[in-house]
């Protein structure tokens, strides 16, 4: 099973990315399972917030290169997270790469632990962070976005907090997560939903205005000769031909 869903604890169910042997990569199945679970939780009046976390040493390695999701389905999932009428909090204490960063950007809050690391690795395999740019660019420091999108450099949880990718970096992330959840539990459900609408309006506008263009761009790049070579080099653990 690629996703596990817990019963709500004081109104908060936990969605756990649970395929550590595949580094919780975003396969078509995982994207579909997340969309189905979020749809049910969004309509449940007993759910006050959603916690998104992971098993293993990787939160999410990005798209599963052997079974990638349809770009339109991934866009729909990210928009669903942003528009969900419940706050979504991510707990990360592992590696996050490429499309996995899109999941974080679509959450309302995120806490990174000391084992976390981050990298926008798309350019290194011949594609671009097209889809994930919609939830991420409004959140990130512009200079940091330019640096990390273009270089693919790895950075840690403290840097992720500094540039706005995550809400907080904590040596013991569980305590910080629980403090955020306790704060959300104090909020009235309708007031929380309406406040989230205020916070996410600009991001939802980006989805509505640019989804078709980024889906087309993602499809074009993933189908290119450059990307085919880049993904083959990654899977075969060899140097990419353009790396100098």
Automatic annotation (TrEMBL):
SUPFAM superfamilies per the UniProt record, alphabetical: ClpP/crotonase
Keyword field contains Lyase: yes
Protein name (record): Methylglutaconyl-CoA hydratase
GO terms, molecular function: methylglutaconyl-CoA hydratase activity
Top EC category: lyase
InterPro entries referenced in this protein's UniProt entry, alphabetically: ClpP/crotonase-like_dom_sf, Enoyl-CoA_hydra/iso, Enoyl-CoA_hydra_C, Enoyl-CoA_Hydratase/Isomerase
Known EC number: 4.2.1.18
One Pfam family this sequence matches: ECH_1
Keyword Lyase attributed: yes
Keywords, sorted A to Z: Lyase
NCBIfam families assigned to the protein according to its UniProt record, in alphabetical order: PRK07827.1
Family: Belongs to the enoyl-CoA hydratase/isomerase family.
Organism in which the protein naturally occurs: Streptomyces formicae
């Amino acid at each position: 099973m690629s996703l596990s869903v817990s019963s709500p604890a004081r109104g908060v169910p936990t969605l756990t990315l649970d395929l550590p042997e595949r580094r919780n990569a975003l396969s078509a199945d995982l994207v579909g399972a997340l969309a189905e679970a979020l749809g049910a939780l969004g309509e449940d009046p007993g759910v006050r917030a959603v916690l998104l976390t992971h098993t293993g040493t990787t939160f999410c390695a990005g798209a599963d290169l052997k079974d990638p999701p349809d770009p339109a389905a991934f866009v729909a999932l990210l928009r669903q997270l942003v528009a969900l009428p419940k706050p979504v909090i991510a707990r990360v204490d592992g590696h996050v790469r490429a499309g996995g960063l899109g999941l974080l950007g679509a959450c309302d809050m995120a806490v990174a632990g000391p084992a976390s690391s981050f990298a926008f690795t798309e350019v290194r395999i011949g594609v671009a962070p097209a889809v994930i740019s919609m939830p991420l660019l409004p959140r990130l420091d512009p200079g940091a976005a330019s640096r990390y999108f273009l270089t693919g450099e790895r950075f840690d949880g403290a840097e992720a907090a500094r540039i706005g990718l995550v809400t907080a970096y904590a040596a013991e992330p569980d305590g910080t997560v629980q403090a955020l959840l306790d704060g959300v539990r104090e909020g009235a459900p309708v007031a929380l939903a309406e406040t989230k609408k205020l916070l996410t309006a600009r991001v939802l506008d980006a989805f509505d205005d640019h989804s078709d263009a980024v889906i087309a761009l993602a499809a074009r790049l993933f189908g290119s000769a450059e990307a085919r070579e880049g993904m083959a080099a990654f899977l075969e653990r060899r140097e990419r031909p353009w790396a100098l």
